[in-house]
Every structure is written in structure tokens, then in C-alpha cells.
Amino acid sequence: MTLTALFTPYVMGPLRLKNRLVMNPMTRCRADADAVPTAIMAEYYGQRASAGLIITEGVAPSPNGRGYARTPGLWNDAQVAAWRPVTAAVHAKGGAIFAQIMHTGRVSHAGNMPAGAKVVAPSAIALAGQMYTDADGMQDYPVPQAMTEADIAQAKAEFVNAAKNAIAAGFDGVELHGANGYLLEQFLSPDTNQRSDAWGGSVAKRIRFVVEVAQAVVAAIGGDKVGIRLSPYGTASGMAAYAEVDETYLTLTKALAEAGLLYVHLVDHAAMGNPAIPAELRDGLRKAWPRSFITGGSFDGETAAAAVASGATDLAGFGRAFISNPDLVERLQNGLPLAAPDFASFYTPGAAGYTDYPTA
């Protein structure tokens, strides 16, 4: 089939995107030890600026929110200054770029966090398994501290501060990472949120933190600069489906629509072995959302074009294909073969497997 649908411009709020292809957020671990972006990150994102929209790797909003080694932050002036060349590189090529704000919650380890930071989560339930640290290699996930009312207020303020810093750094907007088992999703799931107060128990109470974070960020920078990523039925970081999953996401999506967010970005990793999102829920979320709708993951050119052409999604997200094909848009447009990514260099420091992939 023709892929024409992917290459038509799209108006998303105040932005006119040059095509319907989104570069999905992907952790790449190329920041320095202080969570400051490095010069090669500007080169990396600039190389991929032919995408209609780039969503960065997850960016920590605070020391407490930094889960992985060498991931970047947006909580201080040095980080803001180091992000400016990144946004400038993308804008110089006519691209648009959102920063994904990712508080990892329990998916963390003290070995990857600044001194004085703490691992927090809705409930004191450790994630099974281990996490890599640069200093000590693989380490067991710790039992997180159950968040107090003060911790919850602090975390909301951290999202707001990071969003303001993103705009100061030149980003076109931010994406709240409500997927993949990180803090926002930890509040949504009854498996990770076993609170009996105003923040847990019923669906309405479990979605409250996510909704209030979204409302606060919208109030700070404007709804036309805020999106959110969601992953119902996802299995990343210890997540699993639960009895009320459909009700949870339909209720949440309606509340987020009322909050005025610009887009919902739905994660679909069925092609990577995750459970598929049931068609009924996918259609329900699409109908419940009044503005831009992004679906990311599991696409090739033909399936992405079909999804856009049918109206199932407005924009189609690609992840790993953008790692090894900085010119992915041009390759799809011209029917050229795609290069395969080197999995061994996904999270290693330096340019190898990062900025050294050739164009066609």
C-alpha cells in the first residue's frame, strides 16, 4: 500500500508538524553523572529532526525521580542550559521536540541517584529483580518509601518545575510519562498502589495523582504544551493487567481531556511480546479523546500508514527504527531498506551506537 498518509502535515495545537511520524521516547543513557545532557545528545536529536515530532528520552524532574545511570534531568540551571543546544539543533531543521518528564518512583536505586535523594512510591512494595548501576553493577531493587502527603505535594511540584524548565530550555512542550511502570502508573495500578487514604483504593482515588499532576502542569505552561503517555495492559517494570484496567484508563482519559492536555500517546508493544490492548478499549480511548492521538510502538511503514489513514491514530510513533535510521522518514518515503539497531550499545556511554549510524 502507499505510505502517503504518513507524510502529510498535521496541525497539533500551536504546532504544524511536517509529517505524521513521531520519534518515540527511548532511554539512551548519554547524559553525564550529574544528569546534565552532553554535546552528543544535541547531535543525536538533530540527526533525527526530520520526524514530525521528537519526544525525548525520559528526563528526571528531580533527584528523587532519577532511576537509571546517565539519564538526564531538568531540575537545575546547568541542565536547562545543556538542553538548549538540543532543542536548537532540532528547530534548526524544522523539527518539533517535547521533553518526556519521567519520575521513576520505585524503579530506581540509590547508586543512580544524587546524594540525599530517596526512592519513593505510592506504597512500600519493591519491584522484583535488579537494576544496573555504574559503580556496583547489578543491584536488587530497594523497598521504596511509601509517599507521605508532603512527598506527594513535593512530587507534583517537581513535575511543574521540570515543565517550566523544559520551556525555558526551548522545548515545544512536555510529555508526562504515565506508562511503563513509573511513578504515575504506580499510582494507577492496585498492584503498586495499596493505599487506603485519598490516593488509593477506588479508581477515582488511584487516578487522582495523575490527574492533579496534569492539571498543575497545564496551569503552569498551558495545555497546548502538555501530552501524556499511557500503557494499559503494559508489562514493563512489574506492571500487569488488573480487573479494573479498562475502567481506570477510560475514566482517566476523560479526566485528562477535561484538564485540557494536547495529546494522549498510547503505548502498544504487542509486537515485542506484550499483551495487546483490546480493540474495544483502544477504540474507547480514541473516542474519549477530543484532541491529538498518538499510538507508539509495533508499527512498520505499512501498518502505520493504515492506522493514520483509517483515523485510528493521528500520529504514528517509531522507536528502535529511529535509533539505527536517523533518516527513517526519508527511508520510508523512498522505500529504502532499514538498518538494524545494535542492541548492545543502547545504553552504553559515548557515540558508538548513538550518533554513528549512517544515513542511506
Main β-sheet description: 8 strands, parallel, barrel
Shape: globular
| Approximate strand percentage | 15-25%
Count every helix, treating DSSP H or I runs of 4 or more residues as helices. 11
Helix and strand element order: EEEHEHEEEEEHEHHHEHEHEHEHH
Structural class: alpha/beta
Compute the CA-based radius of gyration: 19 Å
The end-to-end span amounts to 22 Å
**Average of pLDDT:** 97
The percent of residues in helical segments reads 25-40%
**Count of distinct strands:** 14
Low-confidence stretches are none
Spatial order of strands in the largest sheet? 3-4-5-10-11-12-13-14
Q: What does the model show?
A:
Helix content is 32%, strand content 16%. The protein is α/β, with parallel strands linked by helices and 360 residues long. It has an eight-stranded parallel β-barrel with strand order 3-4-5-10-11-12-13-14, surrounded by four helices. It has a two-stranded antiparallel sheet with strand order 1-2.
Features:
360 residues; alpha/beta; eight-stranded parallel β-barrel; two-stranded antiparallel sheet; 11 helices; 32% helix; 16% strand
Put the structure in a nutshell.
The protein has 360 residues and is α/β, with parallel strands linked by helices. It is built from 11 helices and 14 strands.
Write the layout of secondary structure elements.
Layout: E1 10-12, E2 15-17, E3 21-23, H1 39-47, E4 53-59, H2 77-92, E5 97-101, E6 120-121, E7 130-133, E8 137-140, E9 145-146, H3 149-168, E10 173-178, H4 183-188, H5 203-206, H6 208-221, E11 226-230, H7 245-259, E12 263-267, H8 279-288, E13 292-296, H9 301-310, E14 315-318, H10 320-324, H11 328-333
Parallel strand pairs: 3-4, 3-14, 4-5, 5-10, 6-9, 10-11, 11-12, 12-13, 13-14
Antiparallel strand pairs: 1-2, 7-8
Helix pairs in contact: 1-2, 3-6, 6-7, 7-8
